[in-house]
Amino acid sequence: MGIGMTSAATRQRLVRRLADEGIRDPRVLAAIGEVPRHRFVDEALSSRAYEDSALPIGRGQTISQPFVVALMTEAVLSAVRPSRVLEIGTGSGYQAAVLAQVADRVFTTERIGELLRTARQRFHELGLHNILTRHVDGLAGWPGQAPFDAIVVTAGGEIPSALFAQLADGGVLVGPEQHGAHQELIRVTRSGDDFEREQLGAVTFVPLRQGLE
Ligand code: SAH
């Protein structure tokens, strides 16, 4: 593997590209510049880690596209100062690592044990000690750690009401909602018992599934 393809300079090109595509928040751009995305994919794919595309991570799952990771992180930061963030769908661990740069603590859940073990190893190697992981069906959230300032759902489907109930007052949920064959990224803001819904554009995520593997 040529070192040039995974260098900090290569990562800065990705940051500039995301800025050109409309990501404005300097905290988000700094977080993308900080996290070595090549460490979140198989070595055979590391030369492609700083392209703005989703990549396979095994078990039929994908690491999200950097633009979408940036967009979701920006959607959180423009609404709250996130102390506690819950993620549904650890996958490679990349989105959690980006969130860990801008939040005090990240709680991330994954239903496929094999993916979670690999992600945990990466968090350990990169010294990301503010990420807590759990091998559970994330459709139930993480009631023991609720409420959360932000909940980020990184698989597409019908977002369960259990998650909205675990939002702090003023908190936001960002995630893809399934509408027939299409997915729409939404942000839902809680004010007391009111939930305000905004649409942030079309996205493509792997599906939310039930149960553990
Ligand atoms: N955030 C990840 C994206 C991974 S793809 C990253 O940055 O790499 C989405 C992940 O959600 C997959 O790993 C999939 O197994 C997981 N997933 C799907 N349904 C889930 C559920 N009910 N609970 C927890 N994880 C789930």
Automatic annotation (TrEMBL):
- Provide the reaction this enzyme catalyses: [protein]-L-isoaspartate + S-adenosyl-L-methionine = [protein]-L-isoaspartate alpha-methyl ester + S-adenosyl-L-homocysteine
- Which GO molecular-function terms appear in the entry? protein-L-isoaspartate (D-aspartate) O-methyltransferase activity
Q: Which Pfam families match?
A: PCMT (PF01135)
Task: Quote the function comment for this protein.
Answer: Catalyzes the methyl esterification of L-isoaspartyl residues in peptides and proteins that result from spontaneous decomposition of normal L-aspartyl and L-asparaginyl residues. It plays a role in the repair and/or degradation of damaged proteins.
Q: Which organism is it from?
A: Wenzhouxiangella limi
Q: Does the keyword Methyltransferase apply?
A: yes
Please identify the protein, giving its name as recorded. Answer: Protein-L-isoaspartate O-methyltransferase
Which biological process, per GO, is one annotated for this protein?
protein repair
Where do the catalytic residues lie? S64
What Enzyme Commission number(s) does the record list for this chain? 2.1.1.77
Cellular-component GO terms for this entry: cytoplasm
- What's the chief localization of this chain? cytoplasm
What are the record keywords, sorted? Cytoplasm, Methyltransferase, S-adenosyl-L-methionine, Transferase
- Compartment(s) of residence: Cytoplasm
Q: What sort of enzyme, by top EC class, is this?
A: transferase
- SUPFAM superfamilies the UniProt entry points to: S-adenosyl-L-methionine-dependent methyltransferases
